[in-house]
Amino acid sequence: MKSISIQKYFFLLLEVIVALAILILGYVFLKSWEGSKLFMVIVAIIWGVGSVAILFYVLNSIAETLPRKTRSIVLPVVFAGPALLLLLWFLILPTIRTFSLSFFNDTGRQFIGLTNYGNVFTDGVFWESFRNNIYWLVFGTSGSVGIGLLIAVLADKSRFENIYKALIFLPMAISFVGAGVIWKFIYAYKGEGANIVEIGLLNAIITGLGFKAQAWLQLPFWNNLLLIIIMVWLQTGYAMVILSSAIKGIPSSLIEAAKVDGATEFQVFRHIMIPEIMGTLITVSTTIVIFSLKLFDIVRVMTGGNFGTNVIANEFYLRQFTQGRTGEASALAILLLVAVVPVLLYNLRQFQGRKAFK
Amino acid sequence: MKRILTLILALMVFLMILGTTSCQKKDDMSKGSDKKVVTMAGPFTDNDAVKFEESIKAFEEETGIDIQYEGSKEFEASISVRIEGGNPPDIADFPQPGLLENFVKTGKVIDLSKTLDMTKVRNNYIQSWLDMGTMTGPDGPIMAGLWARVNLKGIVWYNKKAFDAAGYKVPTTWAELESLMEQIKSDGDAPWAIGIESGAATGWTATDWTEQLMLRTTSLENYDRWLTGDLKFDSPEVRTAIQTWSDIWFPEGNVYGGRKSIPTTSFGDSAKVLFEEPPKAWLHDQGNFIVSFFPEGLQPGVDYDFFNLPPVNDTYGAPLLVGGDIYAMFNDRPEVRQVMQYFASAQSIKTWLASGGVLAPQKDVDPNWLTNPVDRRLQELLKNAKALRFDGSDLMPGAVGAGSFWKEMTGYVSGSRTLDQAVKAIDASWPN
Amino acid sequence: MSEPTKFKRKQKLKRTARNVWVNIVLIFITLLWTIPTLGIFVTSFRRSEDIFSSGWWSILPHRDWVKTEELTLSEDIDVDGTFIIEDIEGDFESFREGIVSEDGTQYRWYGNKRTLRVDKFEREWVGFGANLTLSNYRDVLASGKIQFTDGNGRTITRDGSNFYDAVLNSLAVAIPSTVIPILIAAFAAYAFAWMDFPGRKPLFVIVVALLVVPLQIALIPILQDYTSLDLNGSFLGMWLAHTGFGLPLAVYLLFNYISTLPRDIFESAFLDGATPFNIFARLVIPLSVPALASFAIFQFLWVWNDYLIALIFLGDKNRVVTSALAAMVGEKGQDWHLLTSGAFLSMILPLVVFFSLQRFFVRGLMAGSIKG
Asked: I want to staple A235 with a disulfide (CB 3.0 to 4.6 A). Which of A144, B156, C33, C131 is the partner?
């Protein structure tokens, strides 16, 4: 009995040593390698992924040798600990730091109380951005989720499901840099005058129908909507994929039974599908709401925040990185966080309701 | 699971052994040559980066110092992050002195007057460049940077072949400019090609026009007071300057595409219509760097030429407006000093001058280095300048110069703001 | 025909009609969704000067005015009044817009009044795919320095975008940045869903709350940490950053899924003496494949298309695809011909990933193993 246990510890020790060796050797290797790029990339990928797996495996092995009582405390730490540590480092501490910076001047040395917040609130830019953020939240989210749900439901009935889904998903594969270019070709405006040929699709359609070409991105209110369309175009694929997999998770017997009882398609949708996928629907909506509030790339690329299209995240970026107004930028970031709190609270209430914690 | 893990383990141990043995060799090799490295960061990418690398090649070969240049498109953001992060490059190239000033204020920039051979530097620059390189740090004024390459703004470009064929004359007074505009209009074309779109920096072309006209409609003293916030935007002087270019930009038929197209036309694309067959517009006001945006294959002096925007009235004349790059030092090592000293001489951009598109601020520039006749004339104009001022928005605080000034001018041009609203909003954004 | 068969047939007919409608709606939406992408796909094959002078749809066969003749006018016509050209009367303005004669010829003034030139055009069919070129793709894929000779006989050198290296770098960043957060988040989600430990609920609330933190606020603090740890410009730094920023969503999505797995399977496995690690590896992971796959897709796309994090933590040394794309825009700002082809190339791999993972969403896999 004792020898087995010694053997066990020996192997454990061996595991730890091998794991450490791999971690360190791999790091040193990647730092100093200057040969074939392909080889380095392969090593990097295997090392990166492998190390994490090994780390979990070794930590778990150690935890499992512990007595039962300690084990039940240590195991959750092993499982959830790495995630929490990373979150602490990458998100929690920076947020706290930003919070404290929002009470200091731009050099971060002099405490100025709520001055930054006061400046932000009296600045017209903030309220304009805030209003636009609400547009993004409302129209962006309902657009992406609504169309995503529509396609998920309809495509489920079609034989060409995969083709439709793939094409709707396509924009997700495009970076913001690319998306900006694409939509410039749609909203482009070349001005008025003799023999000017519009190269923007929207203006080509409008002039083809006999109307005057418009400077789309300068039209108050509508330009916000046109920018939001870009986000809907990009994000519908996300909503569709997740909702579609949730719909496929509904037991077909449930739907068949309802149909046998004479329910119409819409009734099935309304009374069976929606309640069944409610959880997923909330998850998707929440992530898109949050995404729409954090988003700044589209605005930055398309209008630079001009013509009344600014959003808070873009203004934050401008002040922080272009204008060096760290204090006010931090205040903006904190206000953005605060704005999302209601969404969060709602979401957490839903969790309670669903008794997710068993 | 276990088997997969064992497999991964075995594979990795194998790769590691292979890897470490081979990088052992690499280490030995790199230890052999004792190369000094100076890191440098700046906004040049692509073609400019190549030209820059070429211009320092001779120096690198001669001294054995390896200047590792890293260009970034988001230079303003990345340099702030690197400096804030305590990881600055040895030398940074600032396209906006206002940004450099921020770092000078926090004491992160090395005083060049204590590290370089200042007699050489002083002999090589006219006083106004030295003044513009001096900024106030936490312990008083320091020599914060060296002007390494400049461009001339407020230059009006035209399609020389078509211009001559049409029989138009280069205007030398404001009245002549106005009658030329009328002439072009009555011939059925738009006189000007103007675009101010530039991504997140949209509007800077409008600020350049404001600066040019400030120099032409009020005194240099007022211009300087304006930069420090002493002269408000909401003052008759600044309003007149803005109004003067508005009178060119806004009336119907003056700008190709009309007023509404100005904010959505990229500044780089806007000049292209000058060189279409037939030209759609005839005049384009922009710094000399714009020639690299012209269609490829045009011959300077033959296909295109320039004139200085005429004075509005005789009292103020037509002082030159310049922009440029200022190099600052962040780490003090002998080899970094050596490189900075080199940048103080026009030799450092000799090959770049030859390939065109830049001008040298240093006195030791030989106009014969410039192969392009248009550049040579610009260089001479710069060298003989009596009055010269730097791009104002680059010298204003970031919140204004890279913020509200761009933004409000864009709003004003697009028609969503009145002049009154715009100037008041800019004044309000001036940091206390 | 008996009544029930008739009824069945009617039902079938009804279903077909409905299917047609479903497909029509879907085709309509998909078309809307595809046109913008089609636009850049076409543009990526066009020459840079064409991109600015006509819309991309003009490559489709269409009727267009084609110049047939140039007329030089005599000096003595009154350009400021009305004048007659080949029996067509009009003033400068109307000729400039173009006047169409009865036989279908268009007379259009060339340039301004001083040119004294009118061009005649006739409507003709312009064929498909005029003026398309592959050179944009060639320029994008070229590595090292590109050299070409311009109109003046000067040799112009530019940095090639080195796309091949950029793709390798992107892979080295994206694959671990996808797998690592999934692994870490799956462990954490399992712990939150099925393990009892103090502080479980508040900790989870914090994780969800972190979803809203815009990652920009973390850039400077993290960069400072990286500087002191010498992680700047390394792949490891990129993996950690993407893991940190991607974790809240990963934990949230995986928790939502893992917490709905039926309780009985865990209990029976536990009774069989399986450790939590075994349950996790043998039951939770295989059962969660659909959720893992969907998150994998999003995380991969996010990392692949990320520019900001790469710009700040990776720099120029190991340039990824998006940085290469952004550099392609170059000093000229608007090299749309290169950007469109580059953007298209950069889309290929994410789409391959999507298609290969898509099969995990099929019914059956989920329905069979969990709900069945």
From this structure: A144
